[in-house]
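Weekly structure sync - notes
Attendees: PM, LS, DV (DV joined late)
Agenda: review two folding runs queued last week.

Item 1: First target. Sequence and structure tokens pasted below for the record.
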Amino acid sequence: MRYILLIFVSISLFTSYGQTGVRGKLMDISAGEALPFASVAVYQAGDSTLAGGAVSTFDGSFEIINIKPGTYYLKAHFMGFDEQTIENIAVTKNQLTDVGAVSMRANQKMLDEIEVTGESVTMLSKADRQVFEAEKFQSSRGGTATDVLRNLPSVSVNANGEISARGSSGFVVLINGKPVQTDPQMILNQLPANAIENIEMITAPSAKYDPEGKGGIINVVTRRGAVDDTYMQFNARIGAPSVENYDNAEYAQRYGGDFTLNHRSGDWDVSAGLSYQRNDITGRRVGDVYTIRNDTTIQFPSDGERSFDEVNYSGRLTLGYTPNSSNNFNLGFFAGKRSKDRTADIVYYDNHARYNDQRLYTIQYYNENLRIRKGDFVLGSVDYGHIFDNGSSLSTSFLYEYTLLGGPTTNRNLGYPETSVIYQDEYNTNDNPLYGTRFQLDYAFKPLPIGKIETGYQFRNLDHTGDFVYERRNNNTGEFELVPDFSSTVNLLRSIHSGYAQLSGKSGQVSYGAGLRMEYMDRELELKDKAGTIDTMYFYDFIKPFPSASVQYAAGEGLTLKGAYSRRVERTTTFKMNPFPEREHSETLEQGDPELLPEFIDLVELGFIKDFSAHSIYATAYFRDVKNVVNRVNTIYNDSILNRIYSNVGDAMSLGLEVGSDLQLTEKWNAFIGGNLYHYKLDGTFDNRPVNTSSWIYNLNMNTTVKFTKDFSLQWTLNYLSDRVTAQGKDSRFLSPNLTLQKKFLDDRLTATLQWLNMDMGLLDTNEQRITTWRDGEFYTTTNYVYEVDQVILNLSYAINSSKNRAKFIKSEFGAQEF
């Protein structure tokens, strides 16, 4: 904290002298939030001559400088809001007169009369982020936030649903600007796509944000309105029967619905939501593995079902109270249940051993494997914000979460084709209650001549216990017996204290920002085995600075140049630190490292944004350096079982280019094209062997939309991810094309969207991916995951007062990451 104090004192030394003008901050009085991109003008009080003007920034602040001393009045304008006037503003030489918070109120009559005849853009480029409009991606309709994300230029989603930003699976999710330290795949699968207004990609965040996530920050902005009224939205989703069942035991079921209610009356705002999603996926798994031990090769090719049954349902409630433009209170609750059952029923049809090209034995068997992953959760939050008369602001937030994680895995090796023969029958389960708290306090000083200074403090605490039980059936007695080597108790305590100071400002055409966040983290991990012979404590802590800096230059004619630097951290989960193996399926164990180190990331990026006519293009070159890279690597456990271990395998560098374009080709034809190309290099060691691998990797996301009429359109989408290297091998390319037809009825209140997802028709190898790893002289494994294609889904959405939705909900902070 002393470093932050030094920075603050140093910055304050420069605030004694400034320019002549007016500054302030525009606020949406109905929402209790900043109002960006509104017009502000200053006029001379005597003859109403225009003296100067500005547009409010993303945080609502504005500055109008280089005007003469005198008396003025100010007018603020924004479409859909009443004009606001402030009289008798006295401007003195070498001072910026602060008018404080300027409250703007929505004009209901104007909003109701506005008819939008043009097309809104898919992408909006801001100084510190890229903003993407969710409803433009029709293939995500009725799905989740994950389905929206897969369309963004720097984002890729592979066959197993794993999300990456610029090639990294580690990033932080914000919901309406509030941090949630979660596994994106799980938290984003809980949020209906229909409830999302925009997705914001912040690749080089400032020091005011949590430093977590090597891929940066994804901010999900939910739909909202601005007036007193009642809003309701009903969404339903139903999937047609599967075209291909892949010989799975059961057919996939896909259906669901969600409901959102938002009621505003005076100072009160109440939001409620219910969601249910059943989203099964059929598929197959085709693999081949061999190990080499003492000149003997054991090979076990396999083929069989790999499918998922996924169910999510939840309820949410938020109560907001805004007594005036200076204060707002929010109370939120979120509770639900989620489960994901993975079936992997595999036939090992030619398990054999060879020595000097002679077979020693051959056996066939059937592995019946079911992993059930569940999570029941409840969390609550309390938030308060205050804006002072001088323009400074204070906000505080407290969140508490309880999550019960766990679920059993059954693993049975049976005879084949006679499956009544039991070779091995194993069962493991775990209960993992998690308790998480977060407290945050932020203060923004009144605007100063050199810019805006913000400071803050955050405390987070995680208490996660795990009870892992592994049992094996005794074939003689029929009783299940404890296997001590695979059974354990794990207790993780992690606390984090952090504070930051951030300066942001503008001088002429240049906007700048610089900040420092200091963080202290303390981690304690206790491990016990069920036999009572192991009771070990592992300790890790650090005090580290996380600086950031950014600069933007408005070159004119729609061209903006920008550069940024940010230092970040990627923390590991409890699961990846548990050294006791978990039986994943017949040929695989998974194991963690109790001394696993966090990844530390340095990111530098340079880019430009160009807006012209109805088009927009941006490009960002970046360099990312990662220390202590965590990869999942393989070793041999025995002749026919590989052990997957999470380990720090070295350091990695990525040099890349991210591009995006939003093109209005004709009045009725729009194309959005984006992608990411980077060179990845990993250097390090694992198990006393060097790890040295590199390759070029790219992904392409595009969609093109044709509007036949005002309310009828067609959209084709393509998501492509290239081959990419890992510490011990490579993952193959992944392809997903989609086609949608959308028709609106009843003055746009009812929307019907027909989706053809993962188009294939037996021609494209869509929605499948091969994962291959090897170690010379020890093992080789390759697995092709083939998932369902040619899915047809109908989505129906009906909204009442569709322009008036402002529902916002809290999200899981801790539990989803471990889930």
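Item 2: Second target, run right after the first with the same settings.
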Amino acid sequence: MKQYQVTGMSCAACQARVEKAVSAVPGVESCAVSLLTNSMGVEGAAAESAVIAAVEAAGYGASVKGAPAASAASADEDALVDRETPVLKKRLLRSLGLLAVLMYLSMGHNMAHFPVPAFLENHVSMAITQMLLALWVMYINRKFFTSGFGSLRHGAPNMDTLVAMGSGAAFIYSLAELYLMSAAQGTGDTGQLMHYAHNLYFETAAMIPCLITVGKMLEAMSKGRTTDALKSLMKLAPKTAVLLRDGRECEVGIDEVQVGDVFVVRPGENIPVDGVVLEGSSAVNEAALTGESIPVDKAAGDRLSAATLNQSGYLKARATRVGEDTTLSQIIRMVSDAAATKAPIARIADRVSAVFVPAVIGVALFTLAVWLLSGQSFAFSIARAIAVLVISCPCALGLATPVAIMVGSGLGAKNGILFKTAVSQELAGGIDIVALDKTGTITSGEPAVTDLFPAEGVSGEELLRLAAALEQHSEHPLAKAILHRAEEDGLETMPVTDFRALPGNGVEAVLAGETLRGGSGTYMAGCAAIPAALQKQAESLAAVGKTPLFFARGDELLGVIAVADRIKDDSARAVKELRGMGLEVVMLTGDNERTAKAIGAEAGVDRVIAGVLPDGKEAEIRRLQRSGKVAMVGDGINDAPALTRADLGVAIGAGADVAVDAADVVLMKSRLTDVSAAVRLSRLTIRNIHENLFWAFFYNLICIPLAAGFYQKLFGWSWEMSPMLGAAAMSLSSFTVCMNALRLNLFDIHDPRHDRVRKKKSKSNKEGIPMVKTLKVEGMMCPHCEKRVQKALEALEGVESAVASHEAGTAIVTLSAPVSDEALKKAVEEQDYEVKGIE
């Protein structure tokens, strides 16, 4: 995705105009414009110059967003600097000073009889002074007029058009009244003179842009707060690094660091770039990236990430990723891209925003005509029309989704949860099934000793000490588990000789002239007598997925040590939380069914699918998708196809780069509870968007008829909404939407107490018609063929989604309405593929 900065946008109508203009450029596949960050994401092969030209032709400005790799973070940070608020504040202060004088003259003197200089006692002189003051305020806020009438000239009226027309209409009407006042003064008609003097709206013409500026400033301040999380990430980027060159330390700018350079980090310093420790050991605080406050021990061979804090030791490391390739830069890019993309829920607001301003102008003209035809005065009618113009607020519609998405993605980033796009952020809350890879996701991925069963006359400590002595030269993962347990218990490893590994059986060695043996029960049965009680215990261990290892000294059995890949401490809690949200939790594993079911029962999953080969996970995801939307959670290279196939791919623990690239959501920690937190955050964000959209639609639905005087006529109210009150209401509506989005920061996304079970969409309609059909398709040879079939099926009315697989030779179609088999078959065969059957 190529990102651009867009200037000149003021509301949702501007956003829609830019999107429409750029989407029409040849080579542009998709375009998403963010009013919040004034940015635009464009996908496709279109030239940058063509995209920029399209934006400029629409009446706005654009420039490529980017910088050299090393300084990209600072460039992005610069792009998020709030330059709007200081300008608006300065403009507002100047406007308020002049408006105060104008209000003193128009309201204070005329209504409360406040004193004024003698030369202003003349009504015409007073009106001319008010006109000049109003003109001055309008000039200070001339951006509304240049932008509003400029966009009108381009055929794309926006919010500024409504403000400019409302203020301009009040000014022109008052100017006409001023001329009539002059004529009345010339004829000496005092009654007419007083009548015209009371019909002046110069203070309204000045008050409208003034109040809208207040709202714009509040909006800019609250919008600035929604990007705080992203700005705080950017500030973490180190500016310098200490390199080792020719045996000497020298401090250089971060943009001078290259891959392969050796750098040093002292206690209390931030790590400048991603690297691998060469020498030294330390505790590194990675809270900035993962949200985990407990420091992580680092030693030679361990990986370091830029912007993390070295707390204790001196480290020497080699740079492995610099500039835009560092973990920090990738996090910044993901959060930024999420803000630049658009959630599907935003389409409703986009469609409304595209026609909103022209519709409001039409309503204002209609209001003017109706009141005039009903016999009201022109002064009354124009006041109602102006009120309609200034109370309408397309900004609230345009901001409803992006501010919530930005706050949500920022909150996620603070907790180590990264949504790559706004689509994935919305989709996470609508998942029906969560498929969990076993190794490294539910379990730790490393075998550990779980049980010790010493034989009669042998202590547990002696059993473990002798087993560790035997296994110390073995490279087997199970041997490492025994050595790790012995180290934890503080046992010293005794030296052995004549070590031999017996593939498929076990190991043996000599200690103090006696032969030590260890291995499977079958092998050890020929070396030592195994008591029936221990044999039964070993079978029980195997039944729950553990591996029993027998150990003997000479022909004397020492006992049994059970080793297993233990589930993580938080796995059972995470599964419980996911099930508490109404999600079905499925475990995928290549283990045998007995072991898999044991681990699944311990974790508490709903279903276990065992014996799945690495390349078979993708097929299992396709089968699960027949029952609903599926999220796949994995961490390895072999999970990448399944992560891509799933509706939502989640890479946990920032595992293999391939898995991270294939995923839609990246969890920086290896904590499974972050999966439930991601779902919870998505649901909170979507609920917040719904609240914002409701407020934006409800506000306009209620306030436009109110401003037009509809309720006055319907209920016989005597109260009239002045244009100034309408402008104040408009200025507060966008501010309200932004502040509501900021409420997301108050939620604890790891707190399950308020979780609700989401009703799962039925796979059949009211008539019982199956809502999922599987087509047997011949002729698909590659992913491109899959896309052609999928696109053809999804173009049919009633088809909600289609998933095609050239490997399985199927296309699974989810329907939202009845679609005949003939229509499905015709759509596929028109793409030159053959349908062999439909189930």
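Discussion on item 2: Residues 67-73, 762-770 have pLDDT under 50 and may be disordered.
Action: LS to circulate a short write-up before next sync.
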